[in-house]
Amino acid sequence: MFDKILIANRGEIACRVIKTARKMGIKTVAVYSDADKNALHVEMADEAVHIGAAPASESYLVIDKIMDAIKQTGAQAVHPGYGFLSENKLFAQALEKAGIAFIGPNPYAIEAMGDKITSKKLAAEAGVSTVPGYMGLIADADDAVKISNEIGYPVMIKASAGGGGKGMRVAWNDAEAREGFALSKSEAASSFGDDRIFIEKFVTQPRHIEIQVLGDGHGNCIYLNERECSIQRRNQKVIEEAPSPFLDEKTRKAMGDQSVALAKAVDYNSAGTVEFIVDGDRNFYFLEMNTRLQVEHPVTELITGVDLVEQMIRSAAGEKLSLKQSDIGINGWAIESRLYAEDPYRNFLPSIGRLTRYRPPAETATDGAIVRNDTGVFEGGEISMFYDPMIAKLCTWAPTRGDAIDEMRTALDSFELEGIGHNLPFLSAVMDHERFVSGNITTAFIEEEYPDGFAGVTLPDVSLRKVAASAAAMHRVAEIRRARVSGRLGNHERKVGRDWVVTLQDTQFAVTIDADRDGSTVVFDDGETVRVKSDWKPGTKLATFLLNDEPFVMKVSKVPGAIRMRVRGADLVVNVRLPRHAELAELMPEIIVPDTSNMLLCPMPGLIVSMDVAVGDVVEEGQALCTVEAMKMENVLRSEKRATITKIAAQTGDSLAVDDVIMEFE
């Protein structure tokens, strides 16, 4: 076994590998760029080596700098994580030449299966079902349009060396094919250093289900069941689960057997994933094989008990696979929510900045439930514009799918995160969505259920009453504290009343509160009674309650004249007033928000890479106005209506902050 391994990656996956290496008694080496000098993975590793400037193209993607770090530290093996050099054949070959073990598959498997064009050809030859498409290289945009017409719209335009949703576009007509080809090619070049593009039929209403495989260097290979990854946004996975709520045992075995056959065809000798599109009749089609550890691997670990990172290390060390197919079962259900630095209220655009508060729920493991949080950040750390926006992967496990969802709901409500825009509210909303709870999901789920973007959650009456009862009880606690303040004037004793009016989400509840040593009894004006128990104290930002003996968790903060309460994806401003004060509050004028409808505001911190219009131009609805690059993604900003450009306030090359004015219309 190795004494020391180097992790050629950063963030949460580097931290994840370090945890298993520690468990195995193996020392670790971290590498870091200028932007990651104070990163968590650097702190966790036994050694750390600086490898260059912040851009990945000058640090994490430079093979020579990784090789120099190996020489400096004497590492015997390298784990590449995912992304960066994890599927780079040249990197694996350089390690092989230097006598350093690559904790991943052999270079031939990387070349054959990591390249999407080659992998599809091999899959077809092996008898694996494949989606119709053009497997050759595409010369230019005209060629892309021609091929798209031959396949038939809609089509998916993909980077051959792509992954993580980058370099991918769906085209429904010639214009979108032309534009998508150019954007995918540009993104592929900047993200992977390889601008080759291919096109395939886009299967509508599909499920994205993948099979985890595990092999060794002795010809053994097994599959570890499937992961459902259908909740996606912009072709990037957001929520995953294992097993799939859709597959039956027959389909699972067929997909697993094909995946193993494909892996054996290239002598696969590590952890890898074979991805499929599955239609409503459980017909499945090969998409690609990821010759690396997947982001969502924890859900497989939780239902099988297999540490995939450990198995990768053992395989790289030449050990035989100790597991047989008969050893792999399905124990319970696991769900993973990817927490991203993306603002759901701004169409999920990237957000950067400092984490002023980062308090994930406690990691726990019992016979009835597991909470796991894989992360690479810490409170006070910064989310950089140079890398992937992932903050953490929150995972829950329970004996049943329903229980796993309940555990995730509570874990998300308990996750405290401040300082940047993030998708916690959206993740919570999905956990309560009827389609997700039923398992009736496809890769079009977000597009279909949130066609106008995410604008927050409107809580049903039953949930509003829980929040109202909690708020009333909290307000009473705060009032008692205020009533006990010392140094008050004589004859100015403050009395705490029983009758209050709670206003939230344009709804009012008149309540009466009676308290005792164990808690409060909140009675609504229609007679409904809620028993509230909590040890919450004013100033505490996370409030845990028992409402009629059922757990209820909210994030709480003070705002002028009210309480901000966040729960189940809703962000509420709650007022608790005396009845007379509530009457007077209804007479207050409403604040008018400034009109910015005639302006194009920058929706995220980013760089203007192209300006597609000029002053005086008349633009149509949907027409491209400019392109903003942020976190390795190029985002085309389009006109929402027909208008004339009257002013352009930004130019190509400008670096803009959120809400900076780009242009104005009339």
Describe this structure in words.
The protein is 27% helix and 33% strand. It is an alpha+beta fold. The chain folds into 6 domains: 4-103, Rossmann fold (3-Layer(aba) Sandwich); 106-131 and 204-329, D-amino Acid Aminotransferase, Chain A, domain 1, CATH 3.30.470.20; 132-201, Dna Ligase, domain 1 (2-Layer Sandwich), CATH 3.30.1490.20; 332-456, 2-Layer Sandwich (D-amino Acid Aminotransferase, Chain A, domain 1), CATH 3.30.470.20; 461-586, Glycoprotein, Type 4 Pilin, CATH 3.30.700.30; 599-665, OB fold (Dihydrolipoamide Acetyltransferase, E2P) (Beta Barrel). The strands form 9 sheets. It has a 9-stranded antiparallel beta sheet. The protein has an 8-stranded antiparallel β-barrel with strand order 25-26-27-28-29-30-31-32, surrounded by 4 helices. A 5-stranded parallel beta sheet has the order 3-2-1-4-5. α5 packs across α6, α7 (141-151) packs across α8 and α12 (401-414) runs antiparallel to α13 (424-431).
Strand order of the largest sheet: 14-13-10-11-12-15-23-21-20
Please give the alpha-carbon distance between the first and last residues: 69 Å
What is the structural class?
alpha+beta
User: What count of structural domains?
Assistant: 6
> Main sheet, how many strands, which sense, barrel?
9 strands, antiparallel
Give average pLDDT, whole number. 92
